[in-house]
Amino acid sequence: MPGAARRTLSLVGGILAGAALVLPGSVATADTRPFIIGGHDATEQYSFMVSLQQGGQHGCGGSLIRPDWVVTAAHCVGAPDGMTARIGSTDRTGGGSEAKVTQAIVHPDYNGGAGPGGDIALLKLDHAVEQKPIAIAPDPGAAGTATRIIGWGMTCDDEQQCPELPVTLQELDTELVDDARCTNFDGGTELCTDSDTPDAMGCFGDSGGPQVVGRPGEWQLIGATSRDGDDDPKCATGPGIWTDVTAYTDWIDQQIGG
Asked: Start and end of every Peptidase S1 domain (predicted)?
């Protein structure tokens, strides 16, 4: 995210549009856990999980919401030329289905990271895949709602200590928290999120990935990973911000059909 107040959580510059690659400069402590940060290997297959890639290199996450449509963060999206998607695998290097991205639709409210809101985009795949899409929840729930975040982002706050993204998908149980916990935040279209796990949160490379509610086999989508939620340069301290996908349901239906 451009500037300390809007550190977006994508990693590969080749699929970014209007969002500078800003990596945290702080040094992780010796007890930093080597996971999403603070999460663990995925405990199940998520048929809807998407790795967006350029040249086989993971850049952002996404969620399959139709057999040939993916929702992600707007700051992940540039020209679709060369962008591919791996769908439904916990291994970002293999398995699941692969498809090319042929079209990108960025929400008109997205302002390139200059302010909150509008950080959502739709990607059209070149063919329908066999994996089961995830349904969008009717609403995200109130503060205190249990959620889960999923992604292949950085596993510590210092890229020198964890230069390689995890191959295995990571997950972290989280919860929605009061809007006032997040800074530079739009309560109407975004979700302020934290975790009971100490020093745990999404980080660079998790952008666009899903925040879900429910239980195994019955997950519903509420969010797409957007950015850090406070002024601390470390990903793992404080809350994070997710775009409230449920707030954009009408727009999504207008673009790709209900």
From this structure: 36-257
Residue 70 near residue 63, CB atoms below 8 Å: yes
Query: Annotated catalytic sites, by residue?
Result: 75, 119, 207
Q: What is the pLDDT of residue 10?
A: 58
The phi-psi region of residue 251 (left if phi > 0; otherwise alpha if psi is between -120 and 50; otherwise beta) is alpha
Phi and psi based region of residue 120 (left: phi greater than 0; alpha: psi -120 to 50; beta: remaining): beta
Q: How many CB atoms are located within 10 Å of the residue 158 CB?
A: 17
pLDDT, residue 154, reads: 82
Report the alpha-carbon distance of residue 229 to residue 210 in Å, rounded.
16
Instruction: List, in order of start, the domains of the chain with CATH numbers.
Output: 49-133+249-256 (2.40.10.10)
Closest CA to 208 of 76, 107, 111, 37: 76
What tens digit of pLDDT does each residue of 129-145 get? 999 999 999 999 999 99
Name the phi and psi angles at 87, rounded to 5: -120, 130
